[in-house]
Every structure is written in structure tokens, then in C-alpha cells.
Design goal:
By secondary structure, the protein is an alpha+beta fold. The protein is built from 14 helices and 27 strands. It has a domain at 233-374: DNA methylase specificity domains (Adenine-n6-DNA-methyltransferase TaqI, Chain A, domain 2). It has a five-stranded mixed beta sheet with strand order 18-26-23-24-20. The chain has a four-stranded antiparallel beta sheet with strand order 4-11-8-9, with no helix packed on it.
Length: 469
């Protein structure tokens, strides 16, 4: 059905460079006639909301994000009603997100309340089209992460306005199409989950038992380790490596005068996304930024101790990072790649060590005091090489599935953009669809791998600091 879609019979120029031609019969309306800005504050009893790039604006506890415990100034946060739209920051790369719950959100966000003509869901899809997202830079105030939408400018901008019945057809069709594509994506995600479980089992067996299944074993006395080879030792992490905490002492962290220099700066998200090695960066510090941070050498083993706790990766270039990341420099008796594998297996223990009364953050002392298996150095090297060899087919398969998912998501983005801007006519196709379309709920495995489910935490940290929340 999707492959059979055709353009509209007649088009006209919209007069908007980012939009181009639109169907002849479509109208255009100024934003202020479709959305008014909601600036209400003073609702401290309402739940905190989180802006996400794939599930919209939801309650923090529903999204599963780390909780920021507010101590004061909640009355400064903006009210969001269910069905409102919230403009995401980070250069607006996520577009405008729809709110699924009533609550409060940082004052750094712009909240748009839809009027009756804009409340049927068409703009939920339209606001995610790449060309529109890029157009938002025309309406910004501020610089870098401090950017926000100037509603007065945006209110004068024109938006496409298809006939209401056609908007309904677009919403109906995209609900079905997104459901079909999501099913295909989730099927591949579930395979990735199984492959990762298999990969983790191989790593765990190798770092706790070694490569020789006939070697005599002894009790380790450590619950997550169980029995280990008799000739292995137990060492604390601090005995086999130096642990160096990252640094970024300046507040606010989004001070533009610190950025756009020659020193790579990574945050927790880069560690979480790395398969093993961090090979790229999208943020840099200048000399002023370097003065409030610290540069770590290429090859440093890094671990996140806040937000996504226990994720590990290896730097392939010199880089700075904040105190939510720690670096490990192995001793002469320890192999870096073996430590990396051990840390992968220790993640559940790291999560259990994280105290709930400090937002789940770990500290260097807790990590340094944890026990780990420690074979002789030559055996560490053999284990690291053996693991890489054994998991290579699995890693290759995971990469292939991830690429297929990436292509499906790119196709979905393009399809949505073409439909909401009138490049494809879905009126006839929508008529052939069932009246009700139900999208399946995400399960835990889907959530852990779902696209773009990244709360704008790095951006909100400086805001939280300024509000003391």
C-alpha cells in the first residue's frame, strides 16, 4: 500500500523555502492562529515531565529516567497540559514533542497549546518533519544549548493547513504505517536482545572461568563471580588501576564561551552508544573550557557513574569529560581490554552499589573497593583475544540488524515528511484501512533499545543546578 502512493494532481508554491510546493487546495495559517504559548507557572504539586525524542513528553517515572529530586523553586517550572507541544532544545534536533500527561517542565522549554483546529494530531507528525525542524533556527533566541524559541517570531510564521478531513486521513494513515514499520523494527530489536544476551554469557564465562574448561576451581566468596580458577587471585579495582574522575567545574555547564575549540568533550551518552571504542565526538572545548576540565589520553578506559551507570568504553583520541565519567589507567599487571570485559560483567553489581539517596550516582571509592577476578597477565591477554574472537560473529550480526533498523527509521522519517507536507497523497489509502489502529506497547527490551529514547538530561543538568533541584 505504501509503495502505491502517488503525488497530488496539482501543486502551488507555498512561498516558504523550507516547505516548497504544496497541494493546490491546501491553505496556510499563521502559527498564532493554531497555537498559543502557555506560560503558566506556580504548580509545584504537578509531576515532573521528561522530553524524549521518540515517546514525546511523559512523566519521568513512566519514562524510567533518573529522578531529579526537587528541593525548591518548583513554582518556576512551566505547566504543560496533555496534548500541548513542547519544543525540545539541543538545536531543536528532536523537533517539537507532544505531551501525553499534565505536569511541569523546565522554563527553558517553549510550551504551545493547540487551538481547536490544531488538536487532531496532524501537527504531532508534522512537527517531526526534518525540513520543519531545520526551519526552527529562524525563530531562536540565545546561543548553543541556551537557545530557545522566540514565540513572537514563531507566531508570525506560516504553517501548512490541509482540510480537516484530509488531516484526519493523514493521521489515520500514518498511525497504520508507523505501526507496520514499528513491528518490523521491534522484531529486529528482539533478535538484538537475544544476541546481546548470548554475547554477555560468553564474556561472563571467560572472565570468571577462563578459556580452559578443565582447570580446577575454587569458591571466590563473591556472589556474582561464583567459582573461579584455583590459580587466579581476587583484587580490588583500585589495586589494578588508577581511577581518575572527570572534571567540569564551571557553572552553568552550557556557557557558550567554553566551547567550540580543539579539545574533544564527551558525555555519558557517547559512552552508552559506543560498542567498545569511542571513535567520534560532536562537542569540543576551547582553552577556557579546558581550564575547568581535564584532558585524558587516547586509550583511557572510561565508565559512566551517573545517569546510565556502569556503561564502559575506550577512548580512541584525547578527550575531556565531566565528573559523571571516570577514567581507568591499568597497572603494569593488568590488561586494559581484560578490564573492559570484566567491567561489562560487573554492571549489575555497579547498579546495586549505586545509593538511591544520591540520584543513583556511584563514586570512585565504591568502585575502587569492588572485587574482581585477576588471572596472571598472559592469561588476561589470552582471555581478551579469545573473547573478541568468539563474539565476532555475534557482533557482526548485531551490526547488520542495527543497520537494517537504521534504514527502516530513515524510511519512516522520509515517509512521514512526504505525507505531512503533501508530497504524497494518502486520501485513498486511508479509506482502505480499518477504523481503529492500535500500536503495540513497548516492553522493557524494546525500551532499552528504542530509537532516540534519550531524555535531554545533559541539557537539563545546568538548569537543575540553577534552580537547585
Amino acid at each position: 500500500m505504501i509503495a502505491d502512493l502517488k503525488p497530488y494532481p496539482e501543486y502551488r508554491e507555498s512561498g516558504l523555502p523550507w516547505l516548497g510546493k504544496v497541494p493546490e487546495h491546501w491553505k496556510q495559517r499563521r502559527t498564532k492562529f493554531l497555537f498559543r504559548e502557555r506560560v503558566q507557572k506556580g504548580f509545584p504539586e504537578e509531576p515532573m515531565l521528561a522530553a524524549t525524542q521518540s515517546k514525546g513528553v511523559v512523566r519521568k517515572e513512566e519514562y524510567g529516567s533518573r529522578t531529579v529530586t526537587a528541593t525548591k523553586d518548583l513554582h518556576l517550572l512551566k505547566l504543560v497540559e496533555q496534548g500541548d507541544y513542547v519544543i525540545s532544545l539541543r538545536s531543536f534536533e528532536g523537533g517539537i514533542e507532544v505531551a501525553h500527561s499534565r505536569g511541569i517542565i523546565s522554563p527553558a522549554y517553549t510550551v504551545l497549546a493547540p487551538q481547536k483546529e490544531a488538536s487532531n494530531g496532524y501537527y504531532t507528525h508534522f512537527f517531526k518533519s526534518p525540513n520543519f525542524i531545520r526551519s526552527l533556527t529562524l525563530f531562536v533566541t540565545g546561543i548553543r544549548e541556551g537557545q530557545n524559541i522566540d514565540y513572537e517570531r514563531l507566531s508570525r510564521a506560516y504553517l501548512p493547513f490541509p482540510p480537516p478531513d484530509e488531516q484526519a486521513a493523514i493521521v489515520h494513515f500514518l498511525g497504520w504505517a508507523n505501526g507496520q514499520l514499528e513491528k518490523a523494527i521491534r522484531a529486529k530489536l528482539k533478535v538484538i536482545v537475544l544476541l546481546n544476551e548470548q554475547k554477555q554469557a560468553i564474556i561472563h564465562c571467560a572472565v570468571t572461568r577462563g578459556l580452559d574448561p578443565s582447570v580446577p576451581l575454587k569458591p571466590s566468596g563473591i556472589s556474582w563471580l561464583g567459582d573461579i580458577p584455583e590459580h587466579w587471585e581476587l583484587r580490588r579495582v583500585k589495586q589494578v588501576s588508577r581511577i581518575l574522575r572527570g572534571k567540569f567545574s564551571h557553572r552553568p555547564r552550557n556557557d557558550a564561551s567554553l566551547y567550540d575549540g580543539s579539545y574533544p568533550f564527551i558525555q555519558t551518552g557517547a559512552v552508552a552508544k559506543a560498542s567498545k571504542f569511542i571513535t567520534s565526538h560532536n562537542q569540543t572545548l576551547n582553552e577556557k573550557g579546558l581550564a575547568v576540565s581535564k584532558l585524558f589520553p587516547s586509550g583511557t578506559l572510561v565508565m559512566t557513574i551517573a545517569a546510565n551507570i556502569g556503561d564502559v568504553a575506550i577512548l580512541t583520541f584525547e578527550a575531556c569529560f565531566p565528573d559523571s565519567i571516570v577514567g581507568f589507567v591499568p597497572s603494569s599487571a593488568a590488561d586494559r581490554d581484560y578490564l573492559y570485559m570484566v567491567f561489562l560483567c560487573m554492571k549489575p553489581e555497579l547498579l546495586r552499589e549505586a545509593p538511591v539517596n544520591t540520584q543513583g550516582n556511584l563514586n570512585v571509592e565504591r568502585i575502587g573497593g569492588m572485587w574482581m577476578p585477576f588471572p596472571p597477565l598472559p592469561e588476561q591477554l589470552e582471555i581478551a583475544v579469545g573473547i573478541d574472537r568468539d563474539i565476532l560473529p555475534i557482533t557482526t550480526a548485531i551490526s547488520r540488524f542495527e543497520r537494517e533498523i537504521e534504514l527502516l527509521r530513515e524510511y519512516r522519517t522520509r515517509l512521514v515528511a512526504d505525507v505531512v507536507t503533501g508530497k504524497l497523497d494518502v486520501r485513498e489509502a486511508a479509506v482502505q484501512l480499518p477504523d481503529e489502529i492500535h500500536e503495540p506497547e513497548l516492553n522493557d527490551a524494546d525500551k532499552s533499545l528504542s530509537e532516540g529514547d534519550e531524555e535531554y538530561g545533559d541539557l537539563l543538568e545546568p538548569i537543575a543546578e540553577e534552580l537547585d533541584v
